[in-house]
Amino acid sequence: MPRIPPKGAKRQGPLQDNPVAGPKRVLLAAPRGYCAGVDRAVIAVEKALDRFGAPVYVRKQIVHNIHVVTELEQKGAIFVEEVEEVPEGAHVVFSAHGVSPAVVQSASDRGLHAIDATCPLVTKVHREAVRFARDDFEILLIGHDGHEEVEGTAGHAPDRVTVVNSPDEADTVQVRDPSRVVWLSQTTLSVDETMETVRRLRARFPELHDPPSDDICYATQNRQVAIKKVAREADLVIVVGSANSSNSVRLVEVALENGAKAAHRVDYADEVQQEWLDGVRTVGVTSGASVPEVLVRRVLSDLAEAGYRDVEEVRTAEEDLIFSLPKELRQDAAGRRDDRALGGRVRA
Question: Is 149 an annotated catalytic residue?
């Protein structure tokens, strides 16, 4: 079972409606929560269980959210670290973060029935890595060492990729040929920090090539833009999301960088602490791209008990992108096209 970060401290009892100077309100960021890639990956596991029966194995966490992983476990999914833990001939789902060709080959060698739930936007970065490596470029991959997405992307061009973890590392990274260098990025990073890293790389390597299109995913960018607008007016920002969710952690950082007086990440509503609300009139609320809306609604319900009943949605973009499910899941057991082949679900 992949390591799940521990939950935050659970609050004892309901939040109290303590007086503050002025009316209380919530600014609810939109877009928030599930993106198309997460939606597709979660439905892929659910449909694999429906189609093939339990257990269905999943390499790593399908998405980085405690609640989602726990619910899928209860339905019969078994999460493993590597495909070597999966019984020969079983069904295994690759997570939304993507895998390297070596993992795909290992699954094939064990006779596993693999279902690839990699987010198509991550697959795009994989293809870019392969193409630039083939064209004899050195790839500076902006991202975080150890993150599954970075491991998967690097595995597509292992002799050509160097990971750059931060803007400071851009000042020290070494390349073989400054005229044959390109940057790519993990899809879930802070847009501002990534652009600062690129700026510092370009200062050292003026011939640095750009990817053909932006690697940071639309959902990550949209959620950061929304929380920037909310943060300017918020005394406190609450981000719903798990500790190993890169985009959720980034939302906390973005909120603090853009005017929020305080910002905290929680997995569940009962982790919101009473002392966070001391003197707070305006609470901003958002959630990472792997967070189901039900968890946000529970936070809003608890805040309402504390007097924050006036909820205003702050919307900065509309999202209507959906992705087709993996080809193995586009038909039911009888060969009929499945109604959810495009991976869409009704959102709250």
Answer: yes
